[in-house]
Design a protein that fits this description.
Elements: E1 53-55, H1 61-67, E2 74-79, H2 84-99, E3 105-110, H3 115-121, E4 128-133, E5 136-142, H4 147-158, H5 163-179, H6 183-196, H7 201-213, H8 217-224, H9 235-250, H10 256-265, H11 270-282, H12 286-299, H13 307-319, H14 324-338
Parallel strand pairs: 1-3, 2-3
Antiparallel strand pairs: 2-4, 4-5
Helix pairs in contact: 2-4, 2-6, 5-6, 6-7, 7-8, 7-9, 9-11, 9-13, 10-11, 11-12, 12-13, 12-14, 13-14
Length: 339
């Protein structure tokens, strides 16, 4: 081992498939020596994402990597703006780390701005990913590898552990991203979960819903078809199918202004109110849709063989049992039926 290595230890020495040929004690890599470099289309550094992904500097490296790796494994992604394969690898790494649910952290270092660490580790090609544990580099790989191999590497470094909590944490992160309006991040997390656990119905439903909302009904249907037979009736999948069916039904109803005009002329036109509720639901106007169906139930429970209540229950299924609109409308329905 070279005296230039300030960390000690070695990585890739266990003969695993991810063993790297990086040698300690080198100098910072020049662009001409990068094996897979591409000078075109220089990317900007991606923003840090949550607690498990961040950018680091030479000054912060000891805290972000060495000290942090004593608590949990840390992957260091050495990249540069002129490196084409880095643009391919880094997003895949981020997706896999998010999906891992906290088993590892990812720290990204731009070697153009901070060359000394890469030089001390003797990194000669980028992208290069080095895993640190207990303050020591223990394993790594170079180049843009497939997502499946990234997931295997993370499992190797972070351990299999209990997969259920990791998936649950990743699903929660996807839901948080969606609630914040970051649909792309949510989709990336769902996609990464499915790459590692393809039978996760919550991820199938979550990604399918994002596809449907984006107008890709065929993509959503194709994704639903991948659900395992034993789980095809899972609530999350049933909710998405119900939502898609309701939207398809609403698309055939016509102009909502016409139903509003009919109701203005005759508030007892229950069919117009029912059709308007269907369109409002398709637009995402859940409270208005529920209120119109509740108005029919209040005025004439027996209308269309209790059709308004039946349709409202279908809305509940599509919206989800814990949705705010579901909870509010269910309280109103209960008051109508039992008070």
């Amino acid at each position: 081992m070279s005296d230039n290595n300030p960390f000690g230890g070695s990585f890739g020495s266990n003969g695993g498939q991810y063993a790297t040929t990086v040698q300690y004690g080198g100098t910072a890599p020049a662009p001409a020596k990068v094996a897979l470099g591409d000078a075109a289309g220089a990317p900007s550094a991606p923003p840090a994402t949550g607690d498990v992904i961040k950018d680091t500097t030479t000054a912060a490296f000891a805290a972000d990597v060495i000290q942090e790796s004593r608590r949990q494994p840390v992957l260091v992604d050495f990249w540069a703006p002129w490196c084409g394969p880095c643009k391919q690898l880094t997003p895949q790494l981020e997706k896999a780390v998010k999906a891992a649910g906290g088993k590892v952290k990812l720290v990204k270092m731009n070697i153009d701005d901070h060359p000394s660490i890469a030089g001390q580790l003797g990194i000669q090609s980028i992208p290069a990913v080095i895993a640190f544990k207990d303050g020591q580099p223990v394993d790594g790989f170079m180049g843009a590898i497939p997502e499946s191999q990234i997931a295997e590497f993370i499992t190797k470094v972070g351990g299999k552990g209990n997969g259920a909590p990791a998936v649950a944490e990743a699903l929660a992160a996807a839901a948080e991203a969606r609630d914040a309006g970051d649909m792309q991040t949510a989709a990336d997390i769902f996609d990464a979960i499915l790459a590692q656990a393809p039978e996760t119905v919550e991820a199938i439903a979550g990604l399918g819903d994002l596809l449907f909302e984006a107008g890709d009904t065929e993509g959503a249907e194709a994704l639903l078809a991948t659900a395992p037979e034993a789980k095809k009736d899972a609530p999350a999948l049933a909710a998405l199918r119900a939502k898609m069916a309701l939207a398809a039904q609403a698309a055939t109803l016509g102009n909502p202004a016409e139903f509003e005009r009919r109701l203005a002329e005759n508030p007892k036109d229950h069919q117009a109110r029912f059709d308007l509720a269907m369109i409002q639901n398709a637009r995402g106007e859940r409270t208005a849709a529920a209120d119109n169906l509740l108005a029919i139930i209040k005025a004439d429970r027996a209308w269309n063989e209790d059709g308004a209540r039946t349709q409202l229950l279908q809305f509940f299924e599509a919206w989800g049992m814990t949705d705010e609109a579901t909870l509010a409308a269910r309280r109103k329905l209960s008051a109508l039926l039992f008070s």
